[in-house]
Specification:
This protein is α/β, with parallel strands linked by helices. It folds into two domains: 10-40; 51-328, 3-Layer(aba) Sandwich (Aminopeptidase). Helices cover 37% and strands 15% of the residues. The chain has nine helices and nine strands. Strands 1, 2, 3, 4, 5, 6, 7, 8 and 9 form a nine-stranded mixed β-sheet that branches. Helix 5 (159-177) links the parallel strand 4 (137-143) and strand 5 (187-193).
Length: 330
């Protein structure tokens, strides 16, 4: 089944025109010619009203978190069999959300080699932009493999770190893709990162093979543990234009009833997760979003039943608004 609405067949279009009266036929021909000229000039950029993102589908979001962070926790061990199952699962979720494959050979996966000899894969999906700004990108990324903690792979469940962030990508795909009645001005790229425990190999691979070059990325948002919202959302900003971006996420979070604590990248208490460092090094304006660290990270206590589902939905609603604004603003 195609993920895009089918185009009318030529013979169907001809049959419709034959049934038209001459004045109506002339109007159709002139309108079609005008639309063709307008599309060549980038009319898709402003084709129709700008759609608002939908709210986070909490039931679906919870299902994805629980799928990625089963009791075995195996999905988060880079190079394991369950890790490859997670890749296929996320590919299916991106496909169901209507994303365009952004990986290698027309697929969602973007594979790379690591020192252990394994070949893990990122999962990359797109909402293509249209018009003169389509060559720019807004990126939202989250790793889905287990972060190293000195424990064996089976000792980690990883519901918050970082199934909560990876499942957020699937939720954002639904929230930002399905209401689209016209292409956004900028291309949206959703990246589920693998290899975070292998010297950030997944993000390094994405930056090297990205469809849109890093210097053309206007904003990158990294989701890193977003499932334990208590008092406030922690946001770390790097790169240029931090004042405007900090105001944007603060206002969007406030609209969801969530306060924001802005942490400078130089602050030792800031969340400087590994997945953000290569983006900042490339000069990409980066926003790391997290609900903070906790004692369950890297242990079997990091289970799905401890996720604050309502809080995670509030975080994703705020992130969707900020992402949506970056996709459509001039």
């Amino acid at each position: 089944m195609s993920r895009w609405p089918p185009l009318p067949k030529p013979q169907d279009l001809g049959n419709r025109l034959v049934k038209c009266s001459p004045p109506t036929l002339l109007l159709v021909v002139v309108s079609t010619f005008t639309m063709s000229l307008s599309s060549c000039a980038g009319a898709l950029e402003v084709n129709g009203p700008r759609p608002a993102p939908t709210h986070c589908p909490l039931a679906d979001y919870r299902t994805v978190v629980e799928q990625l962070a089963g009791d075995s926790g195996g999905h988060f061990a880079t190079g394991s069999g369950d890790n490859f199952k997670a890749v296929r699962y996320l590919e299916g979720q991106f496909y169901a959300a209507g994303l365009v494959p952004g990986g290698q050979y027309g697929r969602f996966r973007q594979c790379f080699d690591i020192a252990s000899g394994d070949r893990p894969c990122n999962v990359v999906g797109l909402v293509p932009g249209a018009g003169r700004l389509a060559g720019e990108a807004v990126v939202v990324a989250a790793h889905f493999d287990r972060h190293p903690t000195g424990r064996p792979a089976a000792a980690t469940i990883g519901a918050d770190d970082n199934a909560s962030g990876a499942a957020g990508l699937v939720a954002l795909a639904t929230m930002l893709r399905r209401p689209v009645v016209s292409a956004p001005r900028r291309t949206l790229i959703l990246v589920a990162l693998n290899g975070s425990q292998s010297d950030r190999a997944g993000l390094t691979t994405y930056l090297r093979q990205a469809i849109v070059a890093p210097e053309r990325t206007t904003l990158a948002i990294v989701l890193h543990r977003i499932g334990r919202l208590t008092e406030h959302l922690e946001v770390t900003l790097t790169g240029p234009d931090t004042t405007r971006r900090s105001a944007s996420i603060t206002n969007d979070a406030r609209s969801e009833g969530v306060s924001v604590s802005l942490l400078p990248a130089s602050d030792d208490t800031a969340c400087r997760c590994d997945d953000a460092a290569p983006l900042a090094a490339k000069g990409v304006p980066t926003m790391v979003v997290t609900t903070g660290a906790h004692r369950d990270v890297g242990s079997r206590r990091d289970t799905a039943h401890k996720i604050n589902w309502v809080g995670a939905g509030q975080v994703l609603n705020a992130v969707a608004r900020s992402t949506h604004r970056a996709m459509y603003r001039l």
